[in-house]
Structures are given as structure tokens and as C-alpha cells.
Write a structure and sequence with these properties.
Blueprint (H helix, E strand, L loop, with lengths): L2 H5 L2 H13 L3 H7 L27 H6 L10 H14 L3 E5 L2 H13 L8 H7 L10 E5 L4 H10 L6 E5 L4 H7 L4 E7 L11 H9 L4 E5 L17 E5 L13 E5 L1 H15 L5 H11 L2 H21 L3 E5 L9 H7 L6 E6 L2 H10 L4 E2 L9 E4 L10 H6 L6 E5 L5 H13 L2
Parallel strand pairs: 2-3, 2-4, 4-5, 5-6, 10-11
Antiparallel strand pairs: 1-7, 6-7, 8-9, 9-12, 11-12
Helix pairs in contact: 3-5, 5-12, 6-11, 13-17
Length: 427
């Protein structure tokens, strides 16, 4: 190795690698970014699994030179995944964490809660929002929101002095009227879970930026293969890696992607403090899944379009919700904002009795929560995802009593449609 190469700092090396990966197309990035070359295992075709809690060095000098100290903060296997995700999203940095909900919580914490250090308790108390009830911070979410995020923001954050406003974010005028000087962030999930509303990321971001607030986008239903929120105004992106990015239903994970300094704060303060750490084996599995993301998404989307058209033409189906259908109210926005329409379908039957009969008649399609798997999964939304919501909460979230959330897998589309057809025929 030459003297010039020895003198390069880790940041310089990382910058050069990122410039190399940015020149590749998405299909090449998903296989090579973060792993080619892998920084600590040259010659290994695949990223090693670093199953270690801490890192030992020959001297204090070597210890202080290295950024791998303790795996609650950084791990070489997770490092590769973080680099890959940042590249795929077009972000400067990424932090992989234990689950999608952990990603939401850490991202919101970074924006909503001040980082307080070395202050005496009396001074810390003065900074709590409860001490100034006329100046309570608030966040805004869509009226059809993933129930886990809804619970976090309305039932947990309210106890730490943060108000949550719920509006129809498809109506930018309604959103604008809800924003005030105390609005710290808007949380945009698009397409939304479970109703598949498509929200205007750029429009939402522009409005919150007028009051110096931040826009977090949950990109789980789309993945970076179909949508890149950072390129249309989002400040931070969160994803449940459990779903499409991993794609094989065998581990949990979440990620936050965004600017370098924001992600450094999340990693070295919020993650280090709250401990929502991804296991290295999960990172290794997600790296495996991520390498085929675009190819899997192409099949998910193709299968979903065929299934949606079948359901839309069936006389026993009352309603079909899929952004790829022209009947979807946000179809035009979806065409503009996404490269394809995703693998999620919502549909409704006429009666609750029909719903119970239908879901029990399915054979190929499995009944279960979660989504983005190679296997087709269906859930009866109000009974499964919405099991702990009050009736008034379901009404506010526009959650129908006859709604199904259908995650299309990678099976042959003819077999998926055949299974739907035989079940519908018997109700």
C-alpha cells in the first residue's frame, strides 16, 4: 500500500466509496453499495457477520483512532447495511435499528426532544414542555395512519407534553390550517397503512418548512425501489426493513435515512441512550434480502395489478383500493411520485359475515399480520391491526369494518387469483 493511501482518513475513504456507488444504477447499488469493497474484510464476497459486543485494540492510541468501540453504537455488519440504505435513498447517512417502530421513535425524538447535557435538574425541568402550557409542541399525522405510529404519538407522546393533530393530509389546505408556530414536524406515511392513501410529499414538506418544522416520511409500503422521499422534500425517511427491503419474513429491522449531522445525533445520542439496537444477524439477513429488492418489487407490483383488476371486476367485491387503478383518487399523484404502484391492495366486501367466511376459505393466501413477504399475506384489518382501537378511533381513521389489507407475494399471479376466486365463490 502506498504512503498516500495510508494517510487517508476513514472519512476520506468513505467519501471516495460513496462517490463510486453513486455512479451506479439502482440495481447495481443494491448489490454493491456498502459491501464492494467491504472496509474491514477485503476479499470476502459477502459481508461477514460480526457477532461481537465490543472491540479490543493493542493500545489506547489504536482505540482512539477507531470508530468501532461498542456494538450498541456501531458494528461492521450494520455499517455495510447503513451505507447501502443511504445510497439507495440518496441520503447522506443512515442508521439501522431494531424495528420500524424504533426508527419512528428515534427519528421523532431527534426532532421533538432537546438534547440536554450537563445541566442540573432544576434547569432541565425548565426545558420540559409541560412547564409552559401555552407553548406545547405539536406534530401532525394523517387521519389514516399505521396503528403503531398512531399509538406512539397519541398515547405515549401526549404523556411527555407533545400534542398530536390528526388531519386529512390529502387536503393541503386543511394541513396548512393545522400548522402553527408550535408544529415541530409532520409525519407523512405514503402510501398509507391500511387505506393506501397517497400523500403529496413535496406539498407537505413545503408547508411545514414555512414554520421551520421538519417532514418525516414513512416509506415502508413503497421502499426505495419505488419512491425516494428525500428527493422530493422530506427531511428524514423511516422504513420498516422487516417488510419489503428484507422481503423474506425472517427478521425485524428499521432504518432512518437523512442528512449526516442529524443521523450522527441519532446514532451517538438517541440510539446510544435508548438502546433500540439491531442485532448483527438481522443486518446480515437484511443485506441478503436487499440485494434483490428491485426485482422482487417488480414482481410484487405486477402481481398486485393483476389481482387488483380481478377484484375490481368481481361482483361480490364492494370496493378495491389500489393506486395503480385509475379509480383510485390519488392515481395521478402516485404516477408522479412513484415509479410503480406497490404490492399492497385494500378491498372491501359487503358484510361482516361475508368477511369472516371469505378469509377462512383462503388456501394459498395466508392469514397473518405484516407485509412485503414472498408469501401472500392477508389481514382482516379492523380485527387484526385495529384490534385495540376503539370504535370512534376506527371511524376517525376511516377504517372500514369490511376492509382487508392484502400483501401480494411472489407466487404465480394465476394461483393468487384462483385462490381469491374460489373463496369469493363460496360466500
Amino acid at each position: 500500500m502506498s504512503d498516500d493511501k495510508r494517510k487517508k482518513t476513514p472519512d476520506q475513504k468513505n467519501k471516495e466509496l460513496r462517490e463510486k456507488w453513486d455512479k451506479l444504477h439502482f440495481d447495481s447499488q443494491q448489490g454493491r453499495a456498502g459491501e464492494d469493497p467491504y472496509p474491514t474484510a477485503e476479499g470476502s464476497l459477502r459481508t461477514p457477520l460480526y457477532a461481537t459486543k465490543s472491540y479490543a485494540y493493542s493500545s489506547l492510541t489504536e482505540f482512539l483512532k477507531n470508530h468501532y468501540i461498542y456494538s450498541r453504537t456501531e458494528n461492521p455488519t450494520l455499517y455495510a447495511l447503513d451505507q447501502k440504505l443511504a445510497t439507495l435513498h440518496g441520503g447522506k447517512n443512515a442508521v439501522s435499528v431494531a424495528s420500524g417502530m424504533a426508527a419512528v421513535h428515534l427519528a421523532c425524538s431527534s426532532i421533538l426532544q432537546r438534547r440536554v447535557e450537563r445541566l442540573r435538574p432544576k434547569k432541565i425541568r425548565a426545558l420540559l414542555p409541560q412547564t409552559n402550557p401555552e407553548n406545547i409542541p405539536n406534530v401532525i399525522i394523517h387521519n389514516n395512519q399505521y396503528t403503531g405510529v398512531y399509538r406512539l404519538l397519541t398515547k405515549i407522546y401526549s404523556q411527555i407534553g407533545v400534542m398530536t393533530k390528526i388531519v386529512d393530509m390529502r387536503d393541503l389546505k386543511e394541513l396548512k390550517n393545522a400548522i402553527d408556530e408550535n408544529t415541530k414536524l409532520i409525519f407523512v406515511e405514503t402510501p398509507s397503512n391500511p387505506n393506501l392513501d397517497v400523500l403529496d410529499i413535496q406539498g407537505c414538506a413545503d408547508l411545514i418548512h414555512e414554520v421551520n418544522g421538519r417532514c418525516i416520511v414513512d416509506n415502508t409500503f413503497a421502499s426505495p425501489a419505488l419512491q425516494k422521499p428525500l428527493s422530493v422534500g422530506a427531511d428524514l425517511v423511516v422504513e420498516s426493513l422487516t417488510k419489503y427491503v428484507n422481503g423474506h419474513g425472517d427478521t425485524l429491522g428499521g432504518a432512518i435515512i437523512g442528512p449526516k449531522n442529524e443521523l450522527l445525533n441519532i446514532r451517538y445520542f438517541w440510539l446510544e441512550t435508548q438502546g433500540a439496537v439491531m442485532h448483527p444477524f438481522s443486518a446480515w439477513l437484511i443485506l441478503r434480502g436487499c440485494r434483490t429488492l428491485s426485482m422482487r418489487m417488480e414482481r410484487h407490483c405486477s402481481n398486485a395489478m393483476k389481482a387488483a383488476k380481478f377484484l375490481d371486476s368481481h361482483p361480490k367485491v364492494a370496493k378495491v383500493i389500489y393506486p395503480g387503478l385509475e379509480s383510485h383518487p390519488d392515481h395521478t399523484l402516485a404516477k408522479k411520485q412513484m415509479t410503480d404502484f406497490g404490492g399492497m391492495i385494500g378491498f372491501e366486501l359487503e358484510t361482516i359475515e361475508e368477511c369472516y367466511k371469505f378469509i377462512d376459505l383462503l388456501k394459498l393466501i395466508k392469514v397473518g399480520v405484516s407485509l412485503g413477504d414472498t408469501t401472500s399475506l392477508i389481514e382482516y384489518t379492523s380485527v387484526m391491526t385495529g384490534f385495540d382501537l376503539a370504535s370512534w378511533e376506527k371511524r376517525r381513521m376511516n377504517m372500514s369494518d369490511t376492509h382487508f389489507r392484502f400483501s401480494i407475494g411472489l407466487e404465480d399471479p394465476n394461483d393468487i387469483i384462483k385462490d381469491l376466486e374460489q373463496a369469493l365463490k363460496q360466500i
